[in-house]
Design brief:
single chain; 118 residues; alpha+beta; two-stranded antiparallel ribbon; 32% helix; 17% strand
């Protein structure tokens, strides 16, 4: 169980060595070391090796440093001024605004999707 969790941590923290050693007196000591410089790509390869068949031959991964300001970040604006919220993609701001409008005017729960749009 611990070895599985350490492996998962190694996939998430690429380029770091993570090792686990069992030094209990009964039996021989056992040690495992995990290092996955490819991160998500190595994780997909690991899953493919278990399944014996690759669903998608090419793996696409995205990375970004957390906490660093983004250059060219877009902010949504309304006619009366900025909203202060970040737009997530070209339509992210529109969808978020529609959800807020529906929640406010129609008293619908946040994330409500009409049956015609599903």
């Amino acid at each position: 169980m611990l070895a599985e969790r350490f492996r998962e941590l190694a996939f998430l923290n690429r380029d770091q060595d993570i090792s686990l050693t069992d030094e209990r007196p009964r039996g021989r000591s056992r040690s495992v070391r995990y290092r996955f410089p490819g991160g998500a790509r190595d994780f997909v390869a690991f899953l493919d090796a278990q399944e014996r068949a690759s669903v998608h031959p090419d793996t696409i991964s995205f990375e970004r440093e957390f906490g660093h300001p983004q250059r060219g970040r877009h902010r949504r604006r309304r006619a009366d001024g900025p909203t202060g919220r970040r737009a997530d993609g070209p339509t992210g701001g529109i969808v978020a605004d529609e959800e807020l409008l529906a929640q406010h005017r129609l008293e619908l729960p946040f994330g409500f999707v009409p049956s015609s749009a599903a």
